[in-house]
Write a structure and sequence with these properties.
Helix content is 38%, strand content 23%. By secondary structure, the protein is α/β, with parallel strands linked by helices. The strands form three sheets. It has a seven-stranded mixed sheet, with helices on both faces. A two-stranded antiparallel sheet has the order 2-3. A hairpin with a 2-residue loop joins strand 2 and strand 3. The longest helix has 20 residues. The protein is globular, with a radius of gyration of 18 Å. The termini are far apart.
């Protein structure tokens, strides 16, 4: 079984979108979250989808799922106080719905709607071979670390750097066990699933994804998404 765990629990404070969470902002009458879900809905290797959502927006999401016929969604669960807790809530649902130890869980941001089918396919294959798969893209900007105040620290050779994106994919038994361990130890500040799994001793494997697989966090990101989505639509219509 291959199950997508879509994290859509953020409030989108950096988007300046008023009372509407960023995952529910619309482009051409369709919310960003639905664009994301459709990629997993349409992928032949995805057996089910679990969505972690702001509890106050769950009813709205159910209506949208029905409207856009996202039939692979098997559960909508409320988010927690942090991203880590929200993902655990989703894992609890997956553990109940798909208890097989070799179930593959693809953790993906609800506001990362430009994921491609090829990336999903490659990620699943990598998990089956190596036990996990972290989607990455090459770093294209100069990166500095250990900055002190206004002073630039060490400049890292960007050819050695990659940016971790999503989906981040694991065997359910491994990711669930890591979350239980973190909860037992009170470790609540992991930035993502990859950092948690590495902390608990897992060697992580990467798959390359497209550079445009961005997370929509700011208004600028939304404009980029709109431009790319429109360009893709034009290419289909005009055969470009």
């Amino acid at each position: 079984m291959n199950v997508a765990l879509i994290f859509a629990g953020g409030t989108g404070q950096r988007m300046n979108s008023g009372t509407t969470p960023k995952q529910f902002l619309e482009l051409h009458g369709k919310p960003i979250l639905i664009y994301t879900l459709e990629h997993f809905q349409d992928h032949e290797d995805i057996d089910g989808i679990v969505v972690v959502c702001l509890e106050s927006w769950n009813d709205r999401l159910r209506k949208l799922i029905k409207k856009f016929d996202i039939s692979k969604v098997k559960a909508i669960v409320p988010g927690g106080a942090s991203g880590q807790e929200s993902i655990f809530n989703g894992l609890e649902a997956i553990h109940e719905l798909y208890p097989q130890e070799d179930t593959v869980v693809l953790v993906h941001d609800g506001v990362r709607p430009l994921i491609e089918a090829e990336t999903i396919t490659d990620a699943i294959a990598c998990v089956r071979k190596n036990g996990n798969a972290i989607t990455v893209t090459p770093a294209i900007e100069t990166i500095t670390i250990d900055n002190q105040g206004d002073c630039v620290g060490t400049i890292v050779n960007r050819s050695r750097c990659k940016m971790a994106r999503a989906p981040q994919c694991f065997l359910m038994k491994d990711l669930y066990a890591a979350h239980l361990k973190a909860r037992e130890e009170g470790n609540t500040d992991f930035i993502d699933s990859a950092s948690m799994m590495q902390h608990y001793g897992h060697v992580l494997y990467c798959v390359d994804g497209p550079a445009f697989n961005i997370k929509i966090t700011t208004p600028t990101d939304f404009y980029i998404f709109r431009a790319i989505a429109d360009a893709k639509e034009d290419s289909q219509i005009f055969g470009l």
